[in-house]
Amino acid sequence: MNSPRILAIVLAGGEGTRLRPLTEAQAKPALPFGDDRRLIDFVLSNLFNSDIRSIYVLAQYKPRSLVVHIEQAWAGRLAAKGGFIETMLPEETPGAGTPFAGTADAVYRCRGLIEKETPDVVAVFAADHVYRMDVRQMVEFHFAAGAEASIAAVPVPLGRASSFGIVAVDEGERVLEFEEKPARPKAMPADPARAYVSMGNYLFEPATLLQSLEQGARRGHTDFGHHLMPVLARRRRTFAYDFSTNWIPGLRPWEERAYWRDVGTLDAYREALRDVAGGWPRLELRKPEWPIHGVGPRLAAVLGSRRLRQAQDRTPDRQEPVSGHVNPT
Q1: Considering the domain boundaries, does residue 114 fall inside one?
Q2: Which are the contacts of 2, defined by CB distance < 8 A and separation ≥ 6?
Q3: Rounded average pLDDT per 10-residue block, the chain, 329 residues
């Protein structure tokens, strides 16, 4: 398959309780990151730079600033390339009037979009991580493995691994077990100091995803990490994609290869901001070979005062957070 049709679903409903007070007025994926970017710009830039131009963003918790940012920074950019980006809120899906009960429930309630688009593969990606990734390389791995589901994975120090989904694989990277946020995560057999963890980025064969969502809904399963992925690991051809093999052009000597951070706490958020600052950043945001797009400095200057007013506006516009988010909040 030379050019598979890829539909991206971005999970952007995270409340980010451990990032308060920054998230008291807006969702975690909408948090500013640098002068003219927000956290969600990392996943959207990775998709856009990978020529993935059909994107739905599932939002819930205080989505106002997120929706505005997507309209200002992304709608025109995607349309100019013949694509689209659309934000879906709970009230715009079947079961309107009730909040999304979790990440899997959110995608299940938007399953009609998958059926309408008839993609060859569905990418379900988290919206609140700092990284650079060519998603097409993961798609190539997915098809080469004959996978029904693929999980992007990366080693992390064992002491921090309990905040993530732990992936156990065989020598061929087939997933043998998936355990979400265990109190005692298992170390990698070849590296007792680290665990192999899910990045919260998944690829699915569409029929497999729809069947799993339907079966999960009947069982009351609402979350990818806690419910769907452990079942898929046992019953379907599920593989782990080693993020360290992902290659991005123009890597500078001072940059960290396979840089990925979950900025789920204030300390992690500050550290990531330091990582992208200065003359020798661990992650170069303005790399022309793979830029992390935002609204652009000119528009950012125009919108600056408006953003400040929005950040200071503490009037709740969506009270219900997405519970059971695959990533720590």
Answers
A1: yes
A2: none
A3: 88 75 78 85 96 94 87 92 92 78 90 93 95 96 96 91 90 91 87 91 96 91 90 94 94 91 87 90 90 64 40 36 32
- State the residue for tokens 């730079």: 49
Residue with tokens 């355990």: 179
* 6-12 vs 54-59, strand pairing mode: parallel
Q: For the residues of 106-142, what is the DSSP string, one character each?
A: HHHHTHHHHHHH--SEEEEEESSEEE---HHHHHHHH
C-alpha distance from residue 214 to each of 26, 89, 165, 209 (Å):
31, 20, 22, 9
The neighbouring-strand residues paired with 175 are 169
Which residue range(s) make up the domain with 65? 6-152+200-227+237-312
Strands (E), 215-256: 238-242
pTM over 0.90: no
Q: H helices within the chain, ranges in order?
A: 40-49, 64-70, 76-80, 103-109, 111-117, 135-144, 206-219, 229-235, 266-275, 297-312
> Encoding tokens for residue 189?
């057999």
Question: Is residue 189 in a domain?
Answer: no
What is the Cα–Cα distance from 136 to 154, expressed in whole angstroms? Answer: 17
- The answer to whether the CB of 238 falls within 8 A of the CB of 212 is no
